[in-house]
From TrEMBL, chain A:
<feature type="transmembrane region" description="Helical">
    <location>
        <begin position="703"/>
        <end position="723"/>
    </location>
</feature>
<dbReference type="InterPro" id="IPR046806">
    <property type="entry name" value="MrpA_C/MbhE"/>
</dbReference>
<dbReference type="Pfam" id="PF20501">
    <property type="entry name" value="MbhE"/>
</dbReference>
<dbReference type="GO" id="GO:0005886">
    <property type="term" value="C:plasma membrane"/>
</dbReference>
<keyword id="KW-0813">Transport</keyword>
<keyword id="KW-1003">Cell membrane</keyword>
<feature type="transmembrane region" description="Helical">
    <location>
        <begin position="918"/>
        <end position="941"/>
    </location>
</feature>
<feature type="transmembrane region" description="Helical">
    <location>
        <begin position="616"/>
        <end position="634"/>
    </location>
</feature>
<feature type="transmembrane region" description="Helical">
    <location>
        <begin position="461"/>
        <end position="483"/>
    </location>
</feature>
From TrEMBL, chain B:
<protein>
    <submittedName>
        <fullName>Multisubunit sodium/proton antiporter, MrpD subunit</fullName>
    </submittedName>
</protein>
<feature type="transmembrane region" description="Helical">
    <location>
        <begin position="299"/>
        <end position="320"/>
    </location>
</feature>
<feature type="transmembrane region" description="Helical">
    <location>
        <begin position="238"/>
        <end position="259"/>
    </location>
</feature>
<comment type="similarity">
    <text>Belongs to the CPA3 antiporters (TC 2.A.63) subunit D family.</text>
</comment>
<feature type="region of interest" description="Disordered">
    <location>
        <begin position="440"/>
        <end position="461"/>
    </location>
</feature>
<feature type="transmembrane region" description="Helical">
    <location>
        <begin position="207"/>
        <end position="231"/>
    </location>
</feature>
<keyword id="KW-1133">Transmembrane helix</keyword>
<dbReference type="Pfam" id="PF00361">
    <property type="entry name" value="Proton_antipo_M"/>
</dbReference>
<dbReference type="GO" id="GO:0005886">
    <property type="term" value="C:plasma membrane"/>
</dbReference>
């Protein structure tokens, strides 16, 4: 059975592409796929009739219950015949209908046939859902894809998609709940041992909702009439014979286990009856014949729902027989509308006149189909309807159901007549018996009394599918025993009344046959009376419809979405930050406060927390905090930058007090360089910040939440300190460092113990350098300027102290600066190298060394501008950055060479003639890499910022002064 | 394993280091970029094989034993993320290589390639980190490179978005650092395995507050509502192929970190309720937002936010089933979200438009692009039998199996969210593909079968046209492969989820067998 589905998939993908040059052949070949289904099903007839279902399984994702389980039993067999047979005929019909069938459309039709085959055969709820949604998807493409340029088509496609998928999702939820209650997703297993409970009741309602939407039951039906914009073959196949019957089929599948459970029977029967009557009533008034048929389908599907969900043996027999009958009579009716539409350019009843005379054979075939629909003997429709009426003749609540069924059938007869008259007959406002008779006679005469001048020749491929389907409905009615035999194993699982009903053409005179005759009479009466009822219809159409409901929901959804998004997505960074801080306060903050109240954290009142170790900390703390507050307050950018510097230096002070000279040193250099760079940047910006646009309330609000955040973090810190129960690993580092003979623990941490962090951080620096260069140099040449390219300025004071004096970035050239720069450069560089080497035992290390070295070149730049800088260090900054990173990585990889782990350090020892015995930990090379990279970073920043300043100094400084 | 484990981030870093000095040669940049990223894919697969064979594998960098040194750890979840991410990284890099010649790429290759590799390194390091501070470093490497990438080819809009992105990310980094400080203060260690043995003995209040701090920290980067507001205002502004990698990996890395920290450090799961509520909020806010947008990239960004909710939902359930769903969703979403952004870039290539108001008629113009959009869009909407369905099914099963009323409620929200995704996706489909292009002047839509034959295009341009499309098609195929291989993938995820909740394998691998 999987092969059958895969065969469809293959045909759907390959044939339209392989045979795209001859579209007719392509379509005929494509029709082989559904034909194969029919043939295969026919071969299995014997096995199914004997009650030996054929099963198959393939694992897909068994952990999720996704197992491709297939099973062929009676109901599946009936549906397969329908799906395959109608599919093949509709494809053949498409050759005529489209002329040049579009490959995409044909491919999707075949894919749909495959999905439908899978759906019918699926014996696993989840797999059934998979195929169910695939049919929805095919339906979406087939409704909208043929003429997507028409807005109505797109809307119809989307409506069908959203309605069926939306409720399909609801159904999936139901499947999951049901499957979990049953412990399996295998349908046959669930049916064998149905689970019970509230969850199951809820699940069944969810599943029914999905089935109702798919089968277009009122009030979820509005997508089906809208979907009639699709080409007729699509409507005939998907929206009459196959897809819309899936909901009914699902109900039929589950009824044996759940008919008595929860709301199943009342819900199915009520919804079905309402659809039966509302659909039939609406069908009576449609002018567009396809919409007429669509409402008729809704009505018939309602009937099927009632039968398949009622949960009695007779109803089930009737339901499945009617399922087949419905496919066989509804499909040709659609196809004939396609013929009318094609040949006469319209499918409106009011515009078609006496067409029966011109296509008599099609008209006769359609009359056969309608006869089956209204339940005339000996058609299959009669057999089914007879059984249906019989099923509800046992009194009790059934009386009401029976009344509903009869009423619905009356409508069926009425709109059946109306369809025939509108499609083929004369154009009269008031239907009369005489008119109908004349129409029938004229069709008859044209068909059998020789040529009539008005006759239109229909190609065989257009006519035959219609005739075949209609005749099949006739033929099937002649062999009720076959259907009885095939369906009985399924129906026997349901409770029977009396000796057990059998599908047959003659049960003797009784209530069913009388009621059947009654429906014909009343139906014909209704048809002739209908013009007088038109005002009633007009009045009723003012009631809210399902279609309006859909649009209201959709509109409401979009309106809510817009309102919500407009209020939240305001595009303001301060607001977003405030939301983040508020979330911190709301989640961890509240939880901490509650914990303090409940005493689930150590209490803060025990006095175990010391606010500070040393009074100096308090002083520095106050300085840092006030500088930070002022930085947020001041209006001048330069002041803000300086105040931020003060914050930084304050933190440096804290490091010193804590006894961390290394951190202090690094921090100090970083702060200094940051300040210099900020000053560069500030030259390009206006002196003052732009005036604040935020209201006073907003500013007070930000202040409050900032203070709260500070308070929260402080409290949390105190709580965290008191919560600690284990010795920290920190002292372990000192011990390891001491063993390594490294007196500087910080450096040992950075280059050895946690060298991986350092590696990451220098990558961050490298990225930052690349990013700044990319941003600043945008629109400029990618080449970094060399000193030769920059024109030499005229004599500058102090120029001879420099290698290649240019324009200094800040103010006029200064002799003092030039002298200082030139003299100090070597000294600073030597110092930086000292720091690099000293790092092992003294404060220092690669990072601070690189920064110090960078300062030397910044100084040269301050004295002599870009020209001087390029001359002082004629190396591309990116070479230094990349090289530094490469050195660090190579050191890391050296660990592997030494047989250890990444970044594992060893000590190299060797003896040099002059130096004597040298001991060098490989960590030194790592540090060297850091040194080079940091130097490169400083250089890169200075160069990029500097060159942007030199590029347009006038324009830039204009606003600043 | 000593050699293999660091390679996923060492290789890209080395590549970046070699690119920086040689930035003038485009060929070199491309070759190196593709070579290195392909290497990462190979290493990731090798690691996956190793993990499948041996369970959790670790290496102690620097040779220092845990908890002193930094441990790199790979378990089933790690290698799964590594494999999927590296494949996506490679695909998007190839796309960039292809687009470099034609298309609307005004970015500097000399910046793009090294920054991209560093981003890869950061992502991989974040996956492998067995140490809280190292996780932070991994995030920083990733974020620093993303700062570079988001402002590539700067325009005023891009700079504005970039500013927002950088400031919010820095805020999250500060909070992360604060959280690490608090964690160390309370426990005295930052090694994840070591931490996992110590958090149990923390006072309950401290533990819950810490867990919530981690939630907020990763919630910002992972765009969990209401911390997501920055994302739709910043991601779409970048160049599309960069947005693609951001959308695919950055948020997912944060979700990964969230899963890792919550399961490993806080197995008591004190934060289930807020997490469930946030998950539902994220789904609703994100997907409703998607309905209001006109720009395709913005729609996709909102959808991204909404779908983060699905993964958080899986985590919030804190069961094997829930985590399985979250992991499957991660895998699915990384691939599909990246694919959709690439396809939207193709759409932009063909029409010069990303706004639904002006775009149109693509179905007729380019059936190939239509397929490349339709399949991942439906997959994202959870339509079977595509990968999104499998992941969503796992989550629904976990949710309905949770036995908690709130769990049922959030599962129902998830069902609704799937439908909203479908609404958003069908809206793009209808407007961009089905609706005719109404705008005058006459649509200038080069159908791509013909694009290659136009005389104006050089051989190289034709080549890159083809490469760009092949890569996108390859990504679509990857998404389909996830669906086809759902069986093995699910059983792998189930085991990964089991490992996450069990923790002992992880602890033993890092700390040795004697660990508690």
């Amino acid at each position: 059975m999987l092969m059958l589905v895969l065969f469809h998939a293959t045909v759907a993908l390959v044939v339209p592409w392989a045979l795209r040059h001859d579209r007719r052949v392509m379509t005929y070949v494509a029709a082989l796929a559904p034909l194969a289904t029919v043939l295969w099903a026919a071969r299995q007839t014997g096995a199914v009739a004997e009650g030996r279902p054929i099963a198959e399984r393939f694992d897909w994702a068994p952990d999720l219950g996704l197992v491709l389980q297939f099973r062929l039993d009676g109901p599946a067999w009936v549906l397969l015949l329908l799906v395959g047979g109608v599919g093949a005929l509709v494809l053949a019909y498409s050759v005529w209908y489209f002329g040049q069938p579009p490959p995409l459309g044909i491919g999707v039709l075949v894919a749909f046939a495959g999905a439908m085959t899978g759906l019918v055969l699926a014996d696993n709820l989840l797999v059934l859902y998979v195929f169910w949604e695939l049919t929805t998807l095919c339906s979406y493409i087939l409704i909208g894809g043929f003429s997507p340029e028409i807005k109505e088509h797109r809307r119809a496609a989307n409506q069908a998609l959203l309605m069926t998928t939306g409720f399909g999702l609801v159904m999936l939820a139901g499947f999951v709940v049901l499957g979990q209650a049953a412990g399996t997703y295998t349908i046959s297993a669930i049916l064998a041992r149905p689970p019970q409970g509230v969850a199951v009741d809820v699940a069944l309602v969810l599943i029914l909702l999905g089935a109702f939407a798919k089968s277009a039951q009122v009030p979820l039906h509005s997508w089906l009439p809208a979907a009639m914009v699709a080409p007729t073959p699509v409507s005939a196949y998907l929206h009459a014979a196959a897809m819309v019957q899936a909901g009914v089929y699902l109900v039929a599948r589950l009824t044996p286990a759940f008919a008595e459970t929860g709301a199943w029977r009342p819900l199915v029967v009520v919804v079905g009856l309402v659809s039966l009557i509302v659909g039939g009533w609406q069908a009576l008034w449609q002018d567009d014949l396809k919409r007429l048929l669509a409402y008729g389908t809704i009505s018939q599907l309602g009937f099927l729902m009632v039968l398949c969900g009622a949960g009695t043996r007779t109803a089930a027999l009737a339901g499945l027989a009617l399922l087949l009958a419905h496919g066989l009579y509804k499909a040709p009716m659609f196809l004939v509308v396609g013929v009318l539409d094609h040949r006469f350019g319209t499918r409106r009843g009011s515009e078609l006149y006496q067409t029966g005379r011109r296509i008599p054979f099609a008209a006769l075939a359609t009359a056969l189909a309608v006869a089956s629909m209204v339940g005339l003997p000996p058609f299959l429709g009669y057999v089914a309807k007879e059984a249906a009426l019989e099923a509800f003749t046992h009194g009790g609540v059934d009386v009401a159901v029976l009344a509903g069924v009869v009423a619905g059938s009356v409508f069926t007869v009425a709109y059946g007549l109306r369809f025939l008259q509108a499609a083929f007959g004369g154009n009269t406002e008031t239907p009369t018996v005489q008119g109908l008779k004349d129409d029938a006679v004229s069709v008859w005469q044209s068909a059998f009394r020789g040529a009539d001048g008005a006759r239109v020749r229909l190609p065989r491929v257009a006519l035959w599918p219609i005739v075949l389907l209609a005749v099949a409905g006739f033929g099937a009615g002649l062999v009720p025993g076959l259907w009885q035999e095939m369906i009985a194993p399924y129906a026997d699982r349901l409770p029977a009344v009396g000796k057990g009903y059998e599908l047959s053409l003659w049960h003797g005179l009784g209530l069913p046959i009388a009621l059947g005759a009654l429906t014909w009479v009343l139906g014909a009466g209704l048809y002739f009376l209908s013009p007088r009822l038109r005002p009633v219809w007009a009045a009723l159409s003012r009631l809210p419809t399902g279609r309006q409901g859909y649009h209201v929901v959709l509109k409401g959804l979009f309106k809510t979405a817009r309102g919500l998004t407009r209020r939240t997505q305001v595009g303001s960074l301060p607001v977003y930050l405030a939301v983040i801080v508020l979330t911190v306060l709301l989640l961890p903050g509240t939880s901490l406060v509650m914990a303090l109240n409940r005493g689930t954290v150590p209490s803060l009142e025990t006095g175990r927390v010391q606010p500070w170790d040393h009074p100096v900390q308090l002083v520095i703390g106050v300085v840092v905090v006030s500088a930070a507050v002022m930085a947020a307050w001041v209006g001048r950018r330069l002041s803000a930058a300086l105040l931020l510097g003060a914050v930084g230096y304050g933190v440096v002070g804290l490091f010193v007090v804590h006894g961390a000279p290394d951190l202090a040193l690094t921090s100090l250099v970083v702060e200094t360089l940051t300040l210099i760079i900020l000053v560069f940047v500030l030259r390009r910006l206006p002196e003052r910040f732009p005036p604040l646009r935020r209201t006073r309330a907003a500013r007070v609000g930000s202040a409050v939440i900032s203070v709260c955040l500070g308070a929260f973090v402080t409290t949390f810190l105190a709580v965290a300190v008191l919560s600690r129960q284990y010795a920290p690993v920190g002292p372990g580092y000192a011990r390891e460092a001491a063993e390594e003979d490294a007196k500087n623990v910080v450096d040992a941490l950075l280059v050895d113990l946690r060298a991986l962090d350092t590696l990451g951080e220098i990558s961050v620096l490298a990225a930052a350098a690349v990013g700044v260069a990319a941003l600043v140099l945008t629109g400029m040449r990618e080449e970094r300027p060399r000193h030769r390219d920059v024109p030499e300025p005229a004599e500058t004071p102090g120029g001879r102290w420099l290698t290649a004096p240019g324009h200094p970035p800040l103010g006029p050239p200064s002799v003092l600066l030039a002298v200082t720069a030139r003299v100090l450069t070597p000294t600073i560089l030597v110092f930086s190298v000292y720091l690099l080497f000293a790092g092992h035992n003294q404060p220092g290390g690669g990072f601070v060394g690189g920064l110090v070295a960078g300062t030397a070149f910044v100084l040269r730049y301050l004295a002599g501008g870009m020209r001087e800088l390029s001359a002082a260090l004629p190396v591309d900054a990116s070479v230094l950055i990349g090289g530094g990173l490469a050195i660090a990585l190579c050191t890391g990889a050296g660990g592997w060479l030494a047989g250890g782990n990444f970044l594992q350090s060893t000590v190299l020892e060797w003896t040099w003639p002059v130096f004597g015995h040298v001991k060098l930990p490989t960590g030194f090379f790592f540090d060297l890499g850091v040194y080079v990279l940091v130097l490169g970073l400083v250089l890169s920043l200075t160069r990029t910022l500097g060159s942007s300043l030199e590029k347009e100094p006038e324009k830039v400084s204009g606003g600043a002064s | 394993m000593n050699v293999l484990l660091p390679l996923p981030f060492v290789l890209p870093l080395a590549g970046a280091a070699l690119m920086l000095p040689a930035w003038r040669s485009q060929t070199w940049l491309r070759l190196l970029g593709v070579g290195v990223t392909a290497g990462v894919v190979a290493v990731s697969v090798a690691l996956a094989v190793e993990v499948a064979r041996e369970g959790v594998i670790t290496t102690q960098t620097g040779g220092w034993p845990a908890p002193l040194g930094i441990t790199l750890v790979a378990d089933r979840l790690t290698v799964l993320m590594l494999v999927v991410s590296s494949v996506v990284l490679l695909a998007i890099l190839l796309y960039a290589v292809g687009q470099g010649v034609v298309g609307h790429s005004e970015a500097r290759p000399s910046v793009y390639y090294p920054a991209y590799l560093m981003l890869s390194a950061g992502v991989c390091l974040s996956f492998l980190a067995g140490d809280l501070f190292n996780l932070f470093v991994g995030f920083e490497v990733m974020l620093a490179s993303s700062y570079v990438l988001i402002t590539l080819a700067p325009t005023p809009a891009r700079m504005h978005a970039g500013t927002m992105y950088v400031v919010v990310s820095l805020t999250s980094s500060i909070l992360f650092l604060t959280t690490i400080g608090l964690t160390y203060t309370a426990t005295g260690t930052v090694n994840l395995a070591d931490l996992s043995t110590r958090t149990e003995d923390l006072p309950a209040g401290t533990r819950t507050a810490l867990a919530l701090m981690f939630l907020v920290v990763f919630g910002i980067k992972g765009a969990v509502a209401p911390l997501h507001l920055w994302l739709p205002d910043s991601y779409p502004a970048a160049i599309t192929k960069i947005t693609a990698i951001f959308a695919a990996l950055l948020t997912k890395t944060a979700v990964y970190a969230m899963i890792r920290t919550q399961t490993l450090l806080f197995p008591q799961h004190d934060v289930g309720t807020p997490l469930l509520v946030l998950a539902a909020l994220t789904m609703v806010v994100g997907l409703l937002g998607a309905l209001t947008q006109q720009d395709i990239h913005r729609i996709l960004s909102f959808v991204l936010v909404g779908h983060i909710g699905f993964m958080v939902f899986g985590l919030a359930l804190f069961s094997v089933a829930g985590l399985t769903g979250a992991i499957l969703y991660l895998v699915h979403h990384i691939i599909v979200q990246a694919t959709l952004f690439l396809t939207s870039d193709l759409m932009q290539d063909e029409t010069g438009e990303t706004s639904l108001e002006r775009i149109g008629g693509l179905a007729g113009a380019s059936a190939f692009t239509a397929v490349l959009f339709f399949v991942p869009a439906m997959s994202l909407s959870g339509v079977p039998p595509l990968s999104g369905f499998v992941a969503k099914l796992a989550l629904l099963q976990a949710g309905f199996g949770s036995g908690r009323t709130l769990g049922y409620a959030v599962t129902s929200v998830a069902v609704l969210a799937s439908l909203l995704t479908l609404v958003a996706m069908s809206r793009i489909w209808t407007m961009a593909f089905w609706r005719p292009r109404s705008q005058a002047p006459a649509p200038e839509l080069p159908p791509e079968e013909k694009a290659g034959e136009e005389p104006g295009l050089s051989r190289q341009q034709r080549y890159s046209h083809r490469l760009v499309r092949t890569v996108t098609a390859g990504m679509v195929a990857c998404g389909l492969a996830v669906a086809v291989l759902a069986g093995p993938l699910t059983s792998w995820s189930v085991q990964a989820a089991g490992d996450l909740l069990d923790r002992t394998a992880y602890q033993h691998a890092v700390l040795g067998e004697e660990a508690p």
